[in-house]
Write a structure and sequence with these properties.
Elements: H1 2-17, E1 28-37, E2 40-47, E3 52-60, E4 68-78, E5 84-92, E6 95-103
Antiparallel strand pairs: 1-2, 2-3, 3-4, 4-5, 5-6
Keywords: Cuticle, Signal
Signal peptide: 1-17
GO molecular function, one term: structural constituent of chitin-based larval cuticle
Length: 106
Amino acid sequence: MKFTLVVLFAVFYFASAAPVDDSKNAQIVRYDSDNIGIDGYNFAFETSDGTSRQEQAQLKNIGAENPALAVRGSVKWIGADGQQYALNYVADENGFQPEGAHLPHA
């Protein structure tokens, strides 16, 4: 009987120590959006699990033969390993240009 209680206690102890995936329960804590119309847009958001993203876009070469949408943005998140990561990017007539980084833990 004592052995069963010890095993049961151990199971509960290790189950409660398991990491919790907060991303499934993340709440939006900030959201900004500005649709500029045909000229572009801006948006940004943050969630309670440490994820954030911001992006701006602007139409370039308006009225020209090859107008292009130029997008700049960044996203940050906490990985499954508990470390913070960031990705900055530009997407324009030259393609998608990402630049990533591992950030020191906040």
